[in-house]
Amino acid sequence: MKLHRLVLSNYRGIAHREIAFPDHGVVVVCGDNEIGKSSMIEALDLLLESKDRSTKKDVKQVKPTHADVGSEVTAEISTGPYRFVYHKRFHKKAETQLTVLAPRREQLTGDEAHDRVRAMLAETMDTDLWRAQRVLQAASTAAVDLSGCDALSRALTWPPGTPPPPAAPSRCSSNASTPNTGAISPRPGGPPGTGRPPSPP
Asked: Which spans does this entry mark as compositional bias, Polar residues (predicted)?
């Protein structure tokens, strides 16, 4: 998954913030303590995981205290063949909007939009590994359960310096490697079954 743009409005103490991410390289978001750096990651999680009408504590606690408005999160994301813009407003006048830009344009709202994003992510990425790669400052330091993360498990258990096993030959490649001299018509004067002209004297 690649994040192209993230926008927060009325999120905790953030009135409005937008970050555009380059397609290549490393991005470092820096700033003073309590300025809202961790809120950017938290907001992305809420956008992807929680429905707009959720009453969970994680959603309630991001409501701004300075105004009676809903918290809004928008992200532009690429994953596999998909590129989409995803928006949610929580708390006040809750809404969910999804615009799929590629491979074909789609426009969805509400729970249908939420379910569509979940399906695209499940199809194109290892969500357990995605969660395991991130550690928030205030999060628990307990060990992460990676028992269901097949990609990471294979990488960690493979003996160092050992090449991966060769892929099982496909039926097509097996047939292609099997000699079949009778299938080639010889050229006049050439060796039978080769189709090659005779060698010069």
From this structure: 171-183
